[in-house]
Write the C-alpha cells for this entry.
Amino acid sequence: MYAQMIKTAGTGVKPREEMTPEEAAFQDRIDADIKIEPKDWMPDEYRATLVRQIGQHAHSEIVGQLPEGNWITRAPTLERKAILLAKVQDEAGHGLYLYCAAETLGVSRDELTEDLLSGRMKYSSIFNYPTLNWADIGAVGWLVDGAAIMNQVPLQRTSYGPYSRAMIRICKEESFHQRQGYDIMMKMAQGTEAQKKMAQDALNRFWYPSLMMFGPSDKESVHSAQSMAWKIKIDSNDELRQRFVDQTVPQAEYLGLTVPDDKLKWNEERGHYDFSEPDWTEFFNVLKGKGPCNTERMNGRKRAWEDGAWVRDGLMAHAQKRAARKVAAE
Amino acid sequence: MATKDHSADLFEFLLRMGDNTLILGHRVSEWCGHAPVLEEDIALANTALDLIGQTQLWLGLAGEVEGQGRSADDLAFLRDAWDFRNVLLVELPNGDFGQTLMRQFLFDAWQELMLDALKGSSDARVAEIAAKAAKEVAYHVERSGDTVIGLGDGTEESHARMQAALDYLYPYVGEMFESDAVDAAMAQAGIAPDPASLRDAYDAKLAAVMGEATLSTPDDRFTHNGGRTGRMHTEHLGHILTSMQWLQRAYPGASW
C-alpha cells in the first residue's frame, strides 16, 4: 500500500439531500459499481483526491526502486540477480502505468515529478528504510509487497476505471514478487547460521515499518469516510493491518523466525492476532523527512532528474529536427 | 576423420562470450533506478536482464565443456580478475548516460555480427545460444544506435557529450576484432568466425550510425587490449568483482 495519509479533498461525506443532481447521479453510478472514466463528469474533490493518491502511489514505485536496486550489483547468484532486476524493472513499469492513470485526470508526469522533487508530494514511508543485508531483499518482497497487496487487491475494484485497470495489472506482478521474496526468506531461514541471522535481522527491522505502511488508525476520520463512499479507499487502515498480521505471523512461524513483538498472541475470541502498535512518533518523523534514508532517497531522485536533463533535452531536440526535416522534404 | 579435441579452446572462447555479457550486464544494471527518464530506466534494466540471461547460457556451457563440475555461478562469482576474459570496453565505467549508451552501441554492433555468424556454428550448442541471444541483441543495437543518433544530433550539449564518449571509448573497440590461437582454433573447427573478419561490416555500421549522429569517429586505430586474453584488465574490473562476488566470497558454501 503505497498511498498513506491521503487527505481527501472536501469536508467529509456530503449528505444526499445536499448533492447537486450531477453529484447524486455520480454517486449512484459508484454505488452501482459502474466505473468512472476520464471523460465522465466527476466532482473536483474526487479528481483532486485521486491525483494525490495515484501520484503518491506512482512516486512510491519509483522511489521504491532504490532500496532494492541497492542490492542488484551484489546479488549472490546470476539467477537472483536476474530476478531482482526484473522485479525492480516491474516497479518502474508500475510507476509508468500509474503516471498514465494520473494523466487521464489532467496532470502530467513531469508536473507530478516536480511535485515529488520539491517535497509537495510524498511517497510511502517504507522506502525510507535501508536494505542492509541480502535477506532484506527477501523481506521487502515478503513483507513490503505483502502489505502493498493487502491494500491493492481491494483497489482493483476502485471506482475510477484507469486506476482499477492499473491495479489489476500491478496486483498480478506484486503477488509474484511476494512469492519470490518469501522464496529468498526460505533459503535464508534454512541456510547457514549466518544466513538465519540475516533473515531474523531483516524481519526485526522491517516488521514495524511494514505495519506503518497502512497508516495510523483512521476509524474516526471523516476524510476516509468520503474516500470510502467514492470507493477510492475500500477498507480501513486497521482492517488491512489486522489482515496483514493474521496472514504474516504463520508465515514467519513456518520460517522459524520470531516476530519482534512480545505482545503478539492469538486471540481466540476475536479470531485474530493481538499485536503491538508501531511507534507512531517514528512514523510521523519519517513523513517529515526524518527517516533513516529520506535525504538519500530524495537526493537520488533529484540527481537522476537533474543529471538526465541534457538527455531529455537532446532527444527532444532531435525529434523536432527530424519532424522539421520531414516537413521540408514533403 | 580424426576429430581434434577443441575443448580447452572452446572453454576459453565461451568464457570470452560469457564474461563480456556478465560484466556489461553488471555495468548496465548499476543504472537501475537512476536513468534520466522512466522508459530509459526500464529499457536499461531490460538490456541488463538479457545480458545476464545470456551469461547463464554461455558460462553454463563453459562449465559443461570444462568438465570440472563448475557451474555458471561458480565461474561468475569465484574467479579472480586474471581469469576473466571479457574485452576491456565492457568493464569501463558507466560515466554519464551518453557514455553508457555509446559503450552499449559499440558493443551491440559487434555482438550482433558475432552472434549472426555463430548461428551457423558447427557446435549445435553454440548455435542454439547464438540464435536465442541474436533476437535480443537485434533490439539492443536498434535502441542503442537510435539513442546515439538522437543524442549526437540533439542539442549542442548532447552532441559534445556523445563526441567525448566516442573519443574516450573508441580506443577500446579494436580489441573485439583481435585474433589469437584460440580464435584460429575456433575458426578452423567452424565453431566461431575469426573476429577480424567482422571488422569491415562493423566499420560500415559504425560509419552509418555516426554519420547520422553527426559524430566523428577517430582516425587513430590504436587499441587497448589484454582483457580477452586475460593478460591485463583495467583497474575497474577488480572493483566490479568486489561488489559482485562479495556474498559468495564472504559466506563460502552457502546456498542462496
Notes: Chain B touches chain A through 52 residues (CB under 8 Å). The radius of gyration of chain B is 18 Å.
